[in-house]
Structures are given as structure tokens and as C-alpha cells.
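hey so u asked for the seq, here:
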Amino acid sequence: MVRERVRKGVLAPAQETIEKLEKVVKDGNSYEAQQMYKSTTARYVSAQKFAEALDILQSGASLQLKQAQVTCGAELAVLFVDTLVKGKFECNEDMLGRIKKIYKEFPQVSLPQQVGVDEDMQKLSEALGAAKIRVEGCSSFLKAALRWSAEFGAPQNGSPELHDMLAEYIYSESPEMDMTKVSLHFVRGNHPEKFASTLVNFMGKCYPGEDDLAIARAVLMLERDALPLFRILRQNFKSSIEREPAFDELLDEIAERFYGVRRKSGLGMFGDLFKMMGGEVMA
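ran it, C-alpha cells below
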């Protein structure tokens, strides 16, 4: 019936379309359903029926993710955000709640902790590949959502709630930990207690003697408006800082960017990092 109405140029009620497409997915035809989700919602958008398109895309993204079709689900999740932009929907609690519902459907899978024989190595390789796909898919979705939120009512760096989601997912799911990226998103979020608990967890994974350096990085990123505290921390963590030669340059960048302390040289190797912290949404 859905296809017949599309051929006639008549759009079915959103719920009817949702039910029909859900059946296609549950019958095991994820790829066919994916094409139908995309083509059908494109027609709703063309007819400026943005609310209906959002309902269908949210349902499709959530269902595909529940069925472990991460690539399909992530693609529909990004289309959901694209539709928010096309429909000029404001960033508010309702829309953020809908984004969070999709986000919650992205799989969270623990990676194997021990490997032995070749078969185990093969399983580990497959698990790492799947983890990379999950992180890339979720990151694409949330970064698109951050850009939308920054344009339609959130702070210039995007919704703090979305930054928290992205930081948590990268930290919990990424097979290649990038604590700088995780920290940048937590700094732009609004849950410092989550940041703190993540740091404590991360410290347990550091090499001996590196845990204090991890804390120093995090605190220096957070305390942007306290030059005296900045100087105290720099002195107190001097021994840790000296273990990483480039760290002094990073601290000079912090002093100049956030506290107005002049430095002799211009932007150094960390200039791009502070562009990310100061204005860009994606990290």
C-alpha cells in the first residue's frame, strides 16, 4: 500500500509508513528497508512534512540499531538531523530528548580482554573493526547534531548535553583511546562529575607515574578563568610536566589564549587544538 500511494503521489500517514517499514526490517530485509526509508522520507521532506519525516527516520534509525545494523542506523540518524536543519527546528528539550533516544540505541559492546590462539586473534580483529564502525557512526550522528544545535539555539560550540553523549561514547567504545578528544567534549558538557569519574577510570589504565599528568591536563583545560590557580598548578605539577617536553608549549598556549599572558613566539604546534576548544563544534 505504501508503494502504491507513493506511485500515485499520495503520502501515507507517518504511522502507517512506520509500521510497513518496520515489517520489512524485521523480516530481515534491512538493506531494502534502508532504501525505502531514504526514498520515502525524501518525499515527505519535499512536501515540507518535516514532522512526519522525523517520526519515520527516528523509528527507522532506532530499529536498525536494535537489529545491530549500525551503518544503516547511523545513516538514518544523520538524516534525522539533516531534517531538523531543513525544517529549521529549534534546539530544545524535546528534540534533544529524541536525539538521546536514538543515541541510546547505539550498541555498547565490551571488547575481548584476553587473546590466545589464532581464532581468538581473529575474533579480536573483528571486534575491533565493529567497534570502529560503531564509534564512527555515532560520532557522525552526534557531530551533525552539534552543528544543528549550534545553529538553532544552543551555545556556539553546540549543546552541552550532546558533548557529554559524544565524550561518553568515544571513551567507552573506541578501540583507540584519544583522551584529548574525550576531554574536549567533556569540557564543553555540563556534567563535570562524569568527567571526573572518567578520569579516575582512565588513570587506572595509565602507565605508572602518568596518572598525575592526566589530572593536570584535565584541570588546566577546565580552569580557564583562574590565572592564580593556573600558575599554582603549573608549579605543583612541574615534575610531571617536565616528563613531556612539548607540554610547556601547550601551557604557554593556555596562558595566552585564556589569561592574556603574552608570549614571545606566535602560535605553535598546539594552535589547531585551541581553535577546536575556542570555536569549532567538531573535535
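The radius of gyration is 23 Å. Confidence is low (pLDDT under 50) at residues 266-270.
lmk if thats what u needed
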